[in-house]
Design goal:
The complex is a heterodimer of chains A (104) and B (150). With 104 residues, chain A is mainly β. Chain A has no helices and seven strands. Classes of the chains: A mainly beta (104), B alpha+beta (150).
């Protein structure tokens, strides 16, 4: 399956500014299905990990309170063109998604 | 022959257990207790082992004054504090106050932004843990339409 993560990386000097967007319903577990009236079970990303050339640059632990189709922005130093940036997540049902991109 | 097959099966099972291990270790890192807490103080103590955070003007918390849609509230936190270990977002009036916790490894700038859900008007607290202690900045966000289903 094609990755449903989008990453925009901007290098200025050795600092990489990362903006990433991923597709995920981020169900709270307290929302009712409009048709059946039953609670929709919680379904959310628990952990987002970003590595640059295998060095971890961000670990985000998330709850259901993060908006649907989550957005994250952050920056890290020590980056250079040609580095391999990998963004991956795992959710509370064990599903995963990942995306690799090369900094330029 | 049969014994050999048993051995093979057992070996396979052991391998499967080994393969599953790193996953289990990784999942354990997710602070389940802190996220399950229904009070901000309980979430804080589960996450940091302390409920006190010193207010700091070296933390910049950017949130809208009024959020028309509680389902999508942009939050940006940055700080000039040094040796930052983690940045967390706590929404005091949410059913589960801890929204997200970002671990900041050395080299990563203490500056994160995301979008969160808010059930109702509430104080939003940025909690920054450094090697030296726990600091916070608080701002109220007025929510017109809640974003936690229901």
């Amino acid at each position: 399956m094609a990755s449903k993560i989008k990453v925009k990386a901007k290098l200025s000097g050795d600092v990489a500014e990362i903006k990433s967007l991923m597709l995920h319903p981020m169900e709270t577990g307290s929302r009712k299905d409009a048709d059946t009236g039953e609670l929709v079970p919680a379904h959310h990303i628990t952990q987002l990990t970003v590595t640059n050339n295998d060095k971890t640059v961000m670990v985000a632990n998330l709850s259901t309170a993060v908006s649907k189709n989550p957005y994250f922005g952050f920056s890290f130093s020590g980056a250079k063109a040609g580095d391999t940036l990998k963004v991956s997540w795992v959710d509370n049902k064990g599903a995963t998604d990942e995306l690799e991109t090369v900094l330029k | 022959m049969d014994v050999g097959r048993r051995l093979l099966l057992r070996g396979g099972a052991a391998l499967a257990v080994l393969a599953a291990l790193p996953r289990a270790v990784l999942a354990a890192v997710w602070p389940e207790k802190a996220f399950a807490a229904t009070e901000a103080d309980a979430a804080m103590s589960a996450l940091f082992g302390a409920t006190e955070a010193a207010p700091s003007d070296q933390i910049t918390l950017k949130v809208p004054e009024i959020a028309e849609n509680g389902a999508v509230v942009p939050v940006t936190i940055s700080t000039t504090l040094e040796n930052v270990e983690s940045i967390s977002i706590v929404v005091e009036n949410n059913p589960r106050p801890l929204a997200a916790s970002f671990e900041i490894p050395a080299g990563t700038l203490p500056n994160v932004s995301s979008r969160i859900k808010m059930g109702e008007t509430s104080d939003v607290v940025a909690v920054v843990k450094t090697q030296g202690g726990i600091y916070s900045a608080t701002k109220q966000v007025k929510v017109t339409i809640g974003g936690c289903g229901g």
